[in-house]
Specification:
With 548 residues, the protein is α+β, with helices and mostly antiparallel strands. The protein contains 13 helices and 17 strands. It is elongated, with a radius of gyration of 54 Å.
Length: 548
Amino acid sequence: MTLKIFRSSLIVGLCVLVISFTLSMFVLYNYHEDQVYTELTSEARNIVHGLDLAGDEFFQDFQPLNRVTRVAGDGTVLYDSVADAASMENHLDREEISGALSNGFGQSAHYSRTLMQKTLYYALLAGDGTVVRVSCVERSLFATAGTMMSGIIWVLALTLALSAILASRMARKIVRPLNELDLDHPELSPDYKELTPLVNRLKEQNSTIRRQIDELSMKQREFSAITDNMSEGFLLIDNRAAILSSNLSAMRLLSAHRDSGLRNLRQSDCPEALKRCAEAALAGRRSEISMPAEDRSLCLIASPVVSSGQVTGAVIMVMDITEREQRETLRREFSANVSHELKTPLTSISGFAELMKEGIVPPEKVTEFAGDIYAESRRLIALVDDIIKLSGLDEDSPAFEKEPVELYSLSAGILESLRPIAAKRNITLNLSGEPTELKGIRHILSEMIYNLCDNAIKYNKDGGRVDVSIRRSGANTIVTVADTGIGIPYAHQDRVFERFYRVDKSHSKEIGGTGLGLSIVKHGAQYHNARIELKSEPGKGTAVSIIF
């Protein structure tokens, strides 16, 4: 504060000094110049009077106060008290000379930047038609100011000293009531009414702090309520691995109790995986470890808590991943089933081909064997094609760019291609709605609708019906494929879009298919930012809607 007051006082003093000095210099300089012109005028008149009385003899033994020059009417210099008149140039174009010849008198000033001097000229017309000019050299404003520099320096030093003393005294007086103020119970002294806004702010701040403490306590209770009702476990530890906060789920998943269980993750009865996870986080690394716990599988995720560049603790999430592990197991089983599905037709093809190669197949059986080989080959090709399609959708990089696709005509073409298959089981195919255009990838949209319609026929009842509708609902475009088939059991409806998942393996094998059709629909919908809705009732049919 002292420095700020000193700086402000010094700036004010300097500004006043500069302004006063500048105004004074201009006033004095202008006054001095007027005085010089007055002197030059008086001297010129005296010389003209003497010249009128004595003629040219006046300049004999003449001792002027300033420089005197006599100029003829044509500008020729007749006399100069300082220089040789014969060597001087014509003065007819000089401002003061031309003024005197025209008006009887003239004056001018000439400033020399090199010498920093100003020469004042006054010319007066004599009775004989010549011009008498008197001039003198006047110091410039800057030169005059230079002579006063020593005094200015003393004034500056005095201003500096006074500013420092004033700043120190003012700072002490200002901070004294602030240092004496009781922050918890601020009361204002009558002598310092200027501090009223500060005291009022302190009172408001104290009230705000008390309110915030109450809100913080409430938020702490809310946080405890939220974390205690989380299905995931939550642990907060300090840099010594001591548990600062935890929820009931963490204690339950770790088979411990809040009152008599874990207190520190470095104690001996702490699970080894939990120790490793915590130590990695306290070392500044994010860690994720799977840990078996009785009949469950747990996933531990630990992240360091960093403050001012230092690890001050860690947050550990404990999640039950038993269901996810089970699903992974199921997926591995499905992969094994697919491998088996690939191996079975390949074995058949290899066996048929080997018999035909050895020539032990009767001629009348060759056509039958060739048909079996063709059927198994088509089955393999369909399976490989579906896998390739899914791989392309997984990579999210189809080879085609999006284009406007008219869904109604696209669906009509798909149904037309499926009519021969549906006719074999007397299944009716219907299309309703209106022409609707969508920007997407044509062959992916075609695969999605084809697979839905193909499934609706495969899993339908003889004499059943498949209804396809294309409609708009606000900003959405909805494609719905509904059938009157066998339906999907409720327990399986969440999984039918998984790869290779089959509700009834024996029935699926009987009607054919790869088990990838609905997975292609799901991934195609994701690529087009669409969502899928499934409604199915066992024995009554299924309706699948894609909402773009």
